[in-house]
């Protein structure tokens, strides 16, 4: 991808034949992802680029899934997991794929050929049955009010986008097959910023680092030399309680996000640094085998959840005219430098992570000659 993306999640329910076609496409997509992962472990090729990976494996995978765009989407997914594993210091052989069902077109274009947005906010989706035949189906997701303006602008400007279909669950009711899922439509953050910014002035000169956890957001504010100026923790403990309804949970998290952004704006923050959602986001398709998996939903709570909060922060930051930049997550939570910062400033581990994120950000994205820890 060519820059930070924002993802719109559009929920849907489908039944009968359409549900079967979505399931068959997702299962075929999953099969070739797992098959490619096995091939890479067996053949151990020298992976130099995504283009090289497609050149070697595209034709072989098309024999199993006869759709070039979906095959490229599967190769892109595996390559992105490979890159994420490298960024996080995880061996590619030490991962296991979770029980997800999805399919995607990673090729950015307008209209997206396989998952096509229509003017009435419906989608025309290319599916593949178990006989290898392509069948187009119509799918009408639920569109939140605040997303309609974004979709209208995508259509009006013919903005290229990336799309995937994620199946969240399926089952039978009165012998009728039902599938519940989401369409994920991703657009460049820059495009969203150009058309939906509300507050155009921010005279701040400071930088913020944000560390997201399952019950809080930690903010560390620094100047251009890396000197710590302020810290603040924004809690949403109730959202992490067992039994808290999802809608209420995300409302609570949304309030915490706005509180954090408002605080940052009024304390002179011009740019916020967040952990790279691409490095974190692709991990939702796998388990990490490093002795860290403490329970069955650990990967969701620590990786997927964190990524979704980061995406929401990026979307809302423009309301406060706060710029967003991304840094790699490696070393921000467990490192010698992290321990030294905790001792020097008397910070807890999460606030120290927020400081390190800010520090890495100003090193990479500003013109400072020397930062001071």
Question: What key phrases describe this protein's structure?
Answer:
disordered C terminus, Nucleotidyltransferase, domain 5, five-stranded mixed β-sheet, 373 residues, 27% strand, single chain, alpha+beta, 2 domains, four-stranded antiparallel β-sheet, 10 helices
Which structural class matches the secondary elements? alpha+beta
Largest sheet: 5 strands, mixed
Total domain units = 2
> Which overall shape is indicated by the principal axes computed on the Cα atoms?
globular
Termini Cα gap: 33 Å
Topology pattern, helix = H, strand = E:
EHHHEEEEEHEEHEEEHEHEHEHH
Described by its quaternary structure, the protein is single chain
Let me know the number of strands: 14
Q: Estimate percent helicity.
A: 40-55%
Poorly predicted runs of 5 or more residues: 286-298, 367-373
**Average residue pLDDT:** 85
Q: How much beta, percentage-wise?
A: 25-35%
Radius of gyration, rounded?
A: 21 Å
Strand order of the largest sheet: 11-10-9-12-14
Total of DSSP H or I helical runs spanning 4+ residues: 10
How is this structure best described in words?
With 373 residues, the chain is of the alpha+beta class. It folds into two domains: 5-192, no CATH class; 197-365, Nucleotidyltransferase, domain 5. The chain is built from ten helices and 14 strands. It has helices at 16-43, 50-62, 68-87, 145-157, 189-196, 246-266, 277-281, 298-317, 336-345, 349-365; strands at residues 5-15, 95-97, 101-109, 115-117, 123-128, 134-139, 161-173, 176-188, 206-212, 216-222, 228-235, 269-275, 286-288, 323-327. The strands form four sheets. The protein has a five-stranded mixed β-sheet with strand order 11-10-9-12-14.
